[in-house]
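Example 392, ligand pyridoxal-5'-phosphate.
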Amino acid sequence: MKASKRVLNMPTYVFAAVDEVKFDLLKKGVDVIDFGIGNPDRRPPKFMLEALKRAIDDDEHQNHRYSQFMGVIELREAVANWYKRRFNVTLDPETEILPLVGSKEGLLSLYMAYLDKGDTALIPSPCYPAHIGAARAAEADIQEMGLLEENAFLPDLDAIDEAVAKRAKFLLFNYPNNPTGAIETREFYEDVLEYGIKHDILLISDIAYSELSLEPDYVPMSFLELPDAKKYAVEFYSCSKSYNMPGWRVGFMVGNREVIANTLKIKTTKDFSIFLAVQRAIAEILNKGEDFAKPNAELYRRRRDVLVDGLLAIGWHVPRPKAGMYIWTKIPEQFSGSMTFVKELAQKSGVIMSPGSGFGGYGEGYVRMALVVEEDRIKEAVQRIADSGILR
Ligand SMILES: Cc1ncc(COP(=O)(O)O)c(C=O)c1O
């Protein structure tokens, strides 16, 4: 039995190879310290768990049945209220908000709705692997926009070939950025909007880390804050990182109603939206109107400082990101590839990182460390890295 060309063309997930290294070490009894995947290690706040328990036991709403494809209106209204409070962006809950079974699922649905085989998609590199993976699944012509350190990890729109810009259907950007930790500027967003309008390109913003600012002087924006952006763009938001609930699978796509309607056509074939109890719990959580992500941002800020200070003290050159939950840094010069470095470091220290090559062509030469490890273990990891004898 032969799988589809689509599947045969999908590369093996780099992180599966990292997992192999990790499980090998665990089998040997090594005490592994894992900075690999951005999987929040803390639980959601207690009241959120209680909201979910109440929703599970709520007989009145029959929360264990199939959901409407678009999710319940209470949830969409709660998202509209949150966007209004947080970004001063007005969204119509009937047509401009689509609840997703995690934004990862929504990305694939959107790509399937907007990319035919061979269509050109402008995707940042490095990027969250699903941003590029979904384009491969859609058999698109992927044009990687390199995010370079010297450009503050913002894509250089002027560097995109005019012929590519002309045929592009789709341009995605993600700030605060995974994996680089870079942040947006209003000017950059304005340039993107102008570029999208000029070339008739659908603009896709991913703000999965918008609630994880690590500095008081930086408040992440929504792309939809720009006047008229809704005419040309959709935006993805995820509850996974802000509230430590990646397993709940809750995200939203908001913005252009036509794009939402077309994406919904794919979704109705694929799923029945989020578990209803989760939808009702999230509606309650978002309606509380408090900044529940703040303690999380503070946690990541402390961990960032312990890790960055520790690595600087042992001679690494590590930037201090202003947002998100990742450290993105160059591998030591003596290594030719990030995977080789990750494997050798893991063998010598039991410390796991993600190789930059897993985040797209421009990720090679870097590693990513997710701040999902407690402070004392971060200190221990730094000590082990120092003891491993792998110098910078
Ligand atoms: C930039 C970005 N977007 C989306 C996601 C996926 O989030 P979700 O859990 O909502 O699928 C992630 C997860 O790491 C991410 O880094």
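Summary: Residues 38, 102-104, 128, 174, 178, 206, 208, 238, 240, 246, 251 surround pyridoxal-5'-phosphate (CB under 6 Å).
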